[in-house]
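MODEL INPUT / OUTPUT PAIR
PAIR INDEX: 1
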Amino acid sequence: MSNTGRKKKLASFNCDQRKWEQFIACCNSKGTTATATLLEFIDLYLGDSQDKLDAIGGNDLDKRLDSKIKASVEKYLVTSDKSHSSPTNETIKAICERLDKLESEFLSESNSNQTTAIDNLANLEQKVERMAARMTQLAEAIIKIQDYLNNQQKRGQKSYYNNSSFKAHTPRMQPLTEEGLASRLGVSEETVRKERIKLPPPLFVAWCKGKDRAGLGWEFNENTGLYQPAS
């Protein structure tokens, strides 16, 4: 049933003259009248009629309440005179404050989650950097150990060759003629001469070392014309 088919009844109530005038002025400034505004307040208080419920297609209570809050904030929230706010306005303010609080909490939680993700990424990067630094330290330690072992081995060899008893039992080899070197190496003089001419001095020393029964290398001294142990 539409509003035009209903009977209307004149209503009266007592109200402070100053408040009533302010209310009329406020309604006029919003492009409506005091009577229309009061009727809307009555509809808001009583709830939706069956006609309105059918018109919006059966939306749930939360959507209808949210729609009314948005419409009522602009129309009934009086900001020019806060000292004379009505109970309805106070209720709307309270609902708006609760909505703002929920939105703030949601944004705070979202920012907190984002911050936590950034912190976790930073912690992971720090761990990787510490692991890389530790691996570098281990590599440097391994190199130092290898150098130390090599030096110890060289010192041991040097000490052995510098030992006086070793020197006493190691006779100094005398230079040899080509005939003498050929006899020592077990080859002909012609072979010795041929290899000396053909091979560079380092390779000739190595060739002699492979033939010598004591594993000595020999090199040719052009000044003396003799073959002497390679130094």
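PAIR INDEX: 2
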Amino acid sequence: MFTTFTNEPLRIVAVSAGLSQPSSTRLLADRLAAAARERLGAEQDRTVEVQVVELRDLAVDIANHLVTGFPPRALKEAIEAVTEADGLIAVTPVFTASYSGLFKSFFDLIDNTALTGKPVVIAATGGTARHSLVLEHALRPLFAYLRAVTVPTSVYAASEDWGSSGDEYTEGLPSRIRRAGSELASAVMGRTVSGAARTPGVDDGEEAVVPFEQQLADLRLD
């Protein structure tokens, strides 16, 4: 039996549905992508490419495609980037206790089998921590319908989370970002989070590391 080796880069695509500039949604997408790229770069030899799809720049194209059924070139390239990525990061601002209309409209354009088995980190931003359940009651079901594999750690960033390092009872935003990025990297590499023996990082703490498959079965809100 022959093993095929490839030098093609691993591709991480982050979809940001932020509307403002600068955008906390884009910032969260960038940090999650950086965390995944850092872990992938440390644990395998292939180069890692990161692309961010800004939906605000595609809003008119998305609306036109919903009406005409024909995607303009920029939108077509964005859809191809998402469907061909090795790992996906999806970040939306919270509107009326759910994902934004722009975010949903974009993923409505993707065939419901195109993301089958693709590892995905789901994340959201909002003004208050009270909306964090959007990750579980809106985003996770959406990507389950699209047959993607959402990693166990989802990341919600409220306004007060930025600049917070956490305390003895809670994890800060940077720690959750690193954990989600590591889980995405592990899923992309097709192995468990625990893998072989590993040295805990500064933000890993002393928590037990469980296999990726078990984490998928024991989903929890972060």
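PAIR 2 NOTE: Residues 191-222 have pLDDT under 50 and may be disordered.
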